[in-house]
Structures
1.
Amino acid sequence: MDSRDLTDCVPESSGELVYKVLTEEDVLLKKLKQIEPVVKQVVQSGGALFFAEVNKRGNLTFRSTQLGKRLLTALQNGSGEFHCYFPLHDLNPYVALLFECAERFDSILVLSSTTRLAPSEVEKEVEMLNGLVDLLRLDASSYEFKKLTRRFVRAENKRAASLDKYINALFEKHSRLVVIRIDLSYRFGFSLDRTNLHSGLAQVTADWAKLRQDLHKGQPIKEMLGFACKLEYGHLKGFHFHLLIFYSGAKYREDIVLTNLIGEHWAQSITGGRGMYYNCNKKKSQYQYPGIGVINWFDKELVSNLKSKVAAYLVKTDYWLRLSTESGRSFFRGNMPKFGGSIRGRPRSV
């Protein structure tokens, strides 16, 4: 939503959260986003990226193009950290391709610092790295890889289109919405067992099912109109949800109060004190692209921000890092509203 990650939080009073500095996970995710465009450029380029040249002393030295240097940086980030911090996830296809191809070579040489190469090692290093580049290009051109990348992009686009249509439908039936954005997680002192993540996932899934059931029943707030939710996992943050909830603007106005009610219900009733939450609506005035709170259908800028910034936050991360299909569903959305009777005083389009 803005330059701050809404999941970068620490406990405040009760179950509420406040911002904190970037964690190691955020740094890793930033690295992940930087790797993908480098690999894309490599597979679309031609020719060698690494060379052996004779210096003034007559010794062989290692040289690389600018793109080659960026590839070396991506390689040195390594896959080990990603698998440690995000063990239940599928990596971006281009990032996974780089790590998989690198593993087929001598990892010590591929990941070694080229600035410390002895003259006798230069030719072997150049041959190996250019071989890696050739392998990347070959595998990226395969039907299987192209099918995989299309599936990744298609999954994100499908969710984005579905959520956009859902928001449109809510505005078609209700001229004013109260849009709540809340992050739900677990207290650090009550973390789920990280040695058995699938068992922890089962508990988290059960907690979410209970919360969703309560929201539909009107607990703690009556007459929820709809919701969208994204489940994520991080080594430090554990399991956490990014949740959008919609209520009628004709019945409610105090979005911050409503968000706190839901957060406390999660923290106390659903998780028995193990949960905590962050009230995004409390800081909505600080966002560069505001799109939560009370929104009228004719507030074109707010509606646009809601769909292109706030809602997109729940789906776009899928392209970089997503929970694997073995972990079950990670994105949830309410049913499309029914249009029985008249629509409240506005055309059926947003």
2.
Amino acid sequence: MSAVKNYANLESSSVLETQGGEKSPPKIGSVRTFISAIEGLGQDAESVIFYRGHGNVTYRLLPSLYRNPGWIRNEHIIFHELVLRCPTDFELSGSTFNILVKMQHYSLPTRLLDITTNPLVALYFACTGGGSADAEVIVFRIPKDEIRYYDSDRVSVISNIGRLPPHSRFPKKTTIKKFNENEDTIKLVREIQREKPYFEARIDPNDIPSVVCVKPVLDNPRIIKQDGAFLLFGVDEEKANPAEVPEKYLLSNNEFRLIITGKEKGKILEQLASLGITRSTIYPEIEHVAGHISAKYMDKI
């Protein structure tokens, strides 16, 4: 909790703001104060710290799929339509999870939420979204033994939920035997076995409503540059209800929040650029590099 104490002790009037006479979380207005706020977090041998930048402090920890009811209702169609229309882009993707990662890359709604081990990358994303609203960098501490790799069976189970129709349901508070006799569970097993023919026709009911931190294959320059990983969201009994991030993963709470002052976003982006964190380094694809160069040399009118 030393980071919480350090954060609470920041005394700069440009960082601390209050509303209505009540004490509110201190707000960050520069890269320096951001680094000061997280320097006490540290690492330990049993866990990994991840970050996520939200352009608006009111944003919820939800994957893009759950930001519009039409997307979750048509998740299975979106998935198949993209693969159908762009087969050459997905022929070497392999697992359903790898396909989801590529869909995320192309901004399609998925049940993935991007996170990063680089706090400055998270700060960049917090400052590029949400307009002039206050932003937030959310901090996670995830036990190493709960982090999964792209080929994990649990990852396959949750990823393939996306292939099922919207009415799919998974019973709670039942035995493993009855759970695996459920019609939708049987359909899910069949989808998993398409990528893993050896997968045993038996799913742990606890896997369905979980949120899993997944390390992807580093075959994507954007993931490499962003030090990226993902939170993969299961469902709470039915597809319309997303699983929730376990509270034990969250370092961000009522006592410790990294709130970014909205009016300082531009200044912070300039400071990040001096540290090599820019659009062209975060998004290394040529169109983004070109856009960064164009903006850099454009007269401000």
3.
Amino acid sequence: MSQLWRDQIYVFLAPERLDWVHYRRGFKPQQLSKDTVFCEQMQNGSSWQNALKLMESHLTDVTSAELTVILSNHFVRFVTLQPQAEITTPEEVKSYAAFRMREIYAERSDSWDLSVSDWNPTTGAICAAINRDLMHQLQEITKRSKVKLKSVEPYLAAVYDHWQKQFDNRKSYFVVVESGRFCSAIVINGVWQSIRNQRVLFQDTQELARELVTALDQEAVLLGNKEVTETVYIFAPEYPQLALPFNCGWSMVTLSNAQNPAPSHFPSSPAGISGINQCLA
């Protein structure tokens, strides 16, 4: 069957939530359903198990569809791959990525599947890693459900791809905030300088804002060229009231607006979701 006529399913998968959008594919895609389900993490087991069960239950009656999965940054680890003129072949890039992952995460990286963005010897790339067992389970679920797994993409990368045209090409700080975690990145002249994937200690919005400013200041100091006031692009749909403290040295630009809204399958604030389901395992 032509991909043009396959239904398209988009899923955001996080430890305690699943966002699901189903489109009837054609010349004019039609949204058939949209759902958000909250659940508890398993006490003894992997943090993704309950969310995967929910996803599989949603796929029960679906056929002839392609599935795109956006993975919460809870499930992903990142490293930057700095430009290296002598690295040109796919094999060399793969070895470089594996070396960088092991350099940062030691033997834990041996159980991860690695994925590298488009490599350029002059601008480098980033490498994302997810647990091999999680990837295997995603593949097995789609086989049992007779759905084609089209792609698996980290939340950070999905946000960057969607809004990068709005960023300053010379220097961009941007942050993706979700429940229990934020992931920040710095890109200068097309080169990824750093990625910080950090658990959130506070759920209170004001405390979260202060924690975020502290992390941004630390990254700017390490970078070594912070301006008096820097611009930071922030996507925080689960924290619609998030605002950085006045006169903190950071000017916040909120991603997602009426002119360029977030994709339907990205998470949103519970207050803005109709028909939420609760699934407490």
4.
Amino acid sequence: MSLLLKGVKYYRTAEVCELAGISRTTLFRWLKSDLLGAGVARDRRGWRLFTEAEVETLKVEANRVDGSTLNE
């Protein structure tokens, strides 16, 4: 269930994984490699919160095709 804070819609980890079609392991690996840049927002419990723009970035990465790994 997304969360609305100060007019900005945020998603929690499980929602982001489902929306982007990736596993939690993949999400955490991408976060560790700094895919989203500056730190991800967190709520007062310390849970990660992702904006719609960050979700879109993850979707693009999940659907990216690396030409060097394709068999021709």
